[in-house]
């Protein structure tokens, strides 16, 4: 399984003990991955910063920061770790193991960062950067720079402010379904240009985001 | 002057326009250093993380993070930038210039980070890391890992926790002297490894800190 992980990373460790350490949660008692994670977190941030810098030559620094925060957040890392089946290779204490620690997003994300740190340690930054880019370039390619990591309500607000237009209001139109499975419908109302868009979601907030997203779509046409 | 700066950095730019951009504050209107600063900040964090990782093999991740935060904070960067006379080379708008922008810590720190970013961009991470290490290794060498911004009792506790060992107990051994000038002696008792260290101080707390400091010294050997 360790072999398969290395294939998926596109990197073969020359120091297998370092690979094992990167996969060792602190609950296992052995030399664990906490220090490697510290190192790997900085490698990841730097390699993703470079990827975004190169991919979006026109974006200002604030947008690059926001995009990076989105890419390196725990959920994204855990998704990548899951795709790499890192959980199958984790070493952890009995307690963590029994409580499903090998599926815990924080543990998976930390292990992924630790792998980057271990590669940096044994083979240098460029080798670690290649592995990071192999995993993140597909995500960078999917980014819509206009979205730039902001939620739709914030985007809409900024868009309107940049055009010196009044801000939107959100109105709850309806709530349907049982308490545990509700569906909300919300309208986003713009005074100028006069526009009403409608969004739905499992929460009022989600419905507002959906409505704002529709409004952004219309305004950006 | 630009030549002197490159000498001080120990690095000669192959793309002079990139060096100029790194030294250009946004107030100047020209292509400025904000995006390079984004890149350079991550290079700095990564290179300093590696320096600390190598220098302090026994420190847990939390201590490494704290030490790094201290090294890369604005005041430290501005001090380094001042020593490099970066202010003499800055390009900025009339207004900033007149209000002494070339002495402003935030502007100096940003320019220093931008220089790291520019080197990363044109010559790769290792070249940038060499420059960062040239500037920061002397600061790393001055660090007393036992100080690391924490009191000795906290350090000892974290050291023991990182090795999954039982926590210490502190026992008052003696109190001497008059009420206004007492001297306390305390023992710090570790079960595993079996160790008793003794500390003295003007207060019970000071004596405990002293004893913990002795214990840390023994454990970190």
Which secondary structure elements does this structure contain, and how are they paired or packed?
The structure is a homodimer of 221-residue chains.
Chain A: H1 2-9, H2 16-22, H3 34-55, H4 61-71, H5 74-83, H6 94-98, H7 105-123, H8 125-142, H9 152-162, E1 169-176, E2 183-190, E3 195-201, H10 204-219
Antiparallel strand pairs in A: 1-2, 2-3
Helix pairs in contact in A: 2-7, 3-4, 3-7, 3-8, 5-7, 7-8, 9-10
In short, what is this structure?
Chain A is built from 10 helices and 3 strands; from the N terminus they run αααααααααβββα. Chain A has helices at 2-9, 16-22, 34-55, 61-71, 74-83, 94-98, 105-123, 125-142, 152-162, 204-219; strands spanning 169-176, 183-190, 195-201.
Largest sheet of chain A: 3 strands, antiparallel
- Can you identify the CATH superfamily of the largest domain in chain A? Ribonuclease III domain
How many beta-strand elements of chain A?
A: 3
Residue stretches of chain A low in confidence (pLDDT < 50, at least 5 long) are none
Oligomer: homodimer
In spatial order, strands of the major sheet of chain A run 1-2-3
- Derived from helix and strand composition plus strand pairing, the structural class of chain A reads mainly alpha
Domain count of chain A = 2
Radius of gyration of chain A: 22 Å
> Greatest contact pair?
A-B, 26 and 26 residues
